Amino acid sequence: MRFSEIVCELRAKKSLSREKLAKKIGVSPDVIAAWEEGTQYPDQEHLLLLARAFKVRISDLVNEDRELMLKVIDGTETQETVIMAGLSVLLVICAGALVGIQHVDADLVGTASRVTEVLLLVGFAALAFMRRTPNARRAAAFRDAIEAAEGSEQGLLKVTAGRNTRLVIAQFVLGAIIALTLIVLLGVLMPESQLPWVML
Questions:
Q1: What is the per-residue pLDDT across 150-179, written as a single tens digit (0 to 9) for each?
Q2: How many C-beta neighbours within 10 Å does residue 151 have?
Q3: Tens of pLDDT along 51-61?
Q4: Is 77 in contact with 139 (CB distance < 8 Å)?
Q5: Quick one: what percent of the chain has pLDDT higher than 90?
Q6: Does residue 61 form part of some domain?
Q7: Do 30 and 76 have their domain in common?
Q8: 134 and 75 in one domain?
Q9: Per its UniProt record, what InterPro entries does this chain match (predicted)?
Q10: In a domain, 62, yes or no
Q11: Residue partners of 73: CB distance under 8 A and separation at least 6
Q12: What is the pLDDT of residue 28?
């Protein structure tokens, strides 16, 4: 990435050692080394402090990597959307199966409920894990960097940096499907409770 080269160049131009720059920004010299080697990426706060230390705009630090950043963000959001779609399909199938089993053989509802609970736990665990992968954290740092760069140009931060509108809409729709299906599942799994129907 060009960002790491820019940090090295600006640090050399300002005659700053890693230690001096680290002290100015409030990080360890190892963090500066990781930024210069491209193994880590700073958050918005540290980008701002870097820009101030070098007396440049944040956009001067990150704009050359913008296209690569957007690709990483888009790839991560696509993976998350695919997992949400899989979870939505799984939930709808489980809800349909439970409703069908309830009318055909009430004795199987308990077993089917346990299987559904396990599948739901696995699905939500996969989604939670995906959001904590190194690639997802990198995409979040890139999104922050783009927002900070756009904010430094325009005076306020944009919330849409790196957002693919179609993926955002798809995630919203899938989230609504998941929520409604969970309400139906709650009604099937706990019929004595009036909670799911109150929620609707």
A1: 775 554 334 445 567 788 888 888 888 888
A2: 17
A3: 999 999 888 88
A4: yes
A5: 19
A6: no
A7: no
A8: yes
A9: Cro/C1-type_HTH, Lambda_DNA-bd_dom_sf
A10: no
A11: 139, 142, 143, 146, 162, 163
A12: 93
DSSP 90-153: HHHHHHHHHHHHHHH-GGGHHHHHHHHHHHHHHHHHHHHHHTTSHHHHHHHHHHHHHHHHHHHH
**Are residues 124 and 40 both part of a single domain?**
no
Total-model pTM: 0.69
- CATH number of the domain enclosing 9: 1.10.260.40
pLDDT at 121: 84
Residue 13 CB neighbours (<10 A): 9
Instruction: Provide the domain limits for residue 96.
Output: 67-199
50 neighbors 25 (Cβ within 8 angstroms): yes
* Domain total of the chain: 2
Q: Tokens 């001096």 map to which residue?
A: 20
Q: Count how many residues are written for the chain.
A: 200
Structure tokens at 136: 């997802």
